[in-house]
Amino acid sequence: MMRPLLALLAALALSWSPAASAHKASDSYLNLAVDGARIEGRWDIALRDLELAVGLDADGDGQLTWDEVRARHGAIEAYALSRLTLSSDGAACPLTVTQQLVDSHTDGAYTVLVLRGACAAPVDTLAVGYTLLAELDPQHRGLLALRKAGAGATSTAILGPDNPQQQLRLAEPAHWRQFADYVKQGVWHIWIGFDHILFLLSLLLPAVLLYRDQQWVGREGFRSAGMDVVRVVTAFTLAHSLTLSLAALGVLALPSRLVESAIAASVIVAALNNLRPLYQRGRVLFAFGFGLLHGFGFASVLAELGLPQSALLLSLVGFNVGVELGQLAIVAIFLPLAWWLRKGFFYRRVVMLGGSAAIALVAAVWLLERALDLELPFWGLA
């Protein structure tokens, strides 16, 4: 009975995984600096997103070349600028693209639009309108970092289909506001970090069960399940908070491909251990050990946003707090539901075993793509 069940879950995993094939969901990074009435900046947009929006792969072979991207520079510029508006005191601040480059992020190649604009008068408050990919991907977000030239402070915002308009003041933001901004960024990034979520879920799935006589059975006491979750989540939290902080402060650094590949491998190991438990009593140490690697993954995301030098530690703490709040929200949803279902066939066989098999399959494809720099045909552009 398990074989057709696992086959079905594998098929579901393959049909779902294109949306989660990257390290994170669709994001673009918009960094702007305002000097009086002048605006300069850069806008990093994933090539896989632009392929959906304007079409870049001229020969349809699933691989993008520089010539193909360059041939579509005009279309890229027109599409991007039609989805971004800046204004001050009700007057538009027209933008132009002075250069287009290509840069590598942890989840693939991005085009870089070098921006320049001007407002009619010196800017105190900048109004930003953002509709990039709104018609194609309701989960897409634009991550904005706004800086006043000569100042160390940075204001941040998350833009998307449900929040396309924002007003940002250029005055020196209060430290509590910067803290709150980075808390929000931390929450958002744990929720879109699919590999982090799947690793955490793989560790949490057995928390309401016990492995006896080569099979999983439901626990009798909620307290023991709750304590197991607390130990695992605490170990994971301490570990990734440590390496996130050290990496963000420039104390430690690891190659991004190594980190992303190791994170995918950690998801595979955690999921397979649910199918054939080998380290049930050592899950806390496992969570801590691999949590150290996941911290470097979070740090790569934070590096894209940057940290304001005027409130460096406070913003870093805020991001860490946000990650933990987002993580606790996942646990708060998962644990009561898992406890309620723990003794039924559906949880023990479909969710625990079938779900773990599907997670391992998705993570195995991630590992192949990241370690070997491959792009599997059914996975879309990286």
Strand content: 15-25%
How would a textbook summarize the main sheet? 6 strands, mixed
SSE order: HEEHHHEEEEEEEEHHEEHHHHH
**How many runs of DSSP E, i.e. beta strands?**
12
Overall shape: globular
Model regions low in confidence, pLDDT < 50 over at least 5 residues: 1-23, 377-382
- Helical fraction equals 40-55%
Structure commentary:
Helix 7 packs across helix 9 (283-305). The chain is globular, with a radius of gyration of 22 Å. The protein contains eleven helices and twelve strands. It is an alpha+beta fold and 382 residues long. 51% of the residues lie in helices and 21% in strands. The strands form three sheets. It has a six-stranded mixed sheet with strand order 5-6-2-1-8-9. A four-stranded antiparallel sheet has the order 4-3-7-10.
Indicate the topology.
Blueprint: H1 2-16, E1 27-35, E2 38-46, H2 47-54, H3 66-71, H4 73-82, E3 84-88, E4 91-92, E5 95-105, E6 108-118, E7 125-130, E8 141-148, E9 154-159, E10 165-169, H5 175-191, H6 194-204, E11 209-212, E12 215-218, H7 222-248, H8 256-275, H9 283-305, H10 312-341, H11 345-372
Helix pairs in contact: 1-11, 5-10, 6-8, 7-9, 7-10, 8-9, 8-11
Note the main attributes of this structure.
382 residues, six-stranded mixed beta sheet, four-stranded antiparallel beta sheet, 11 helices, globular, disordered N terminus, disordered C terminus
Structure summary:
This protein is α+β, with helices and mostly antiparallel strands and 382 residues long. The protein has helices spanning 2-16, 47-54, 66-71, 73-82, 175-191, 194-204, 222-248, 256-275, 283-305, 312-341, 345-372, and strands at 27-35, 38-46, 84-88, 91-92, 95-105, 108-118, 125-130, 141-148, 154-159, 165-169, 209-212, 215-218.
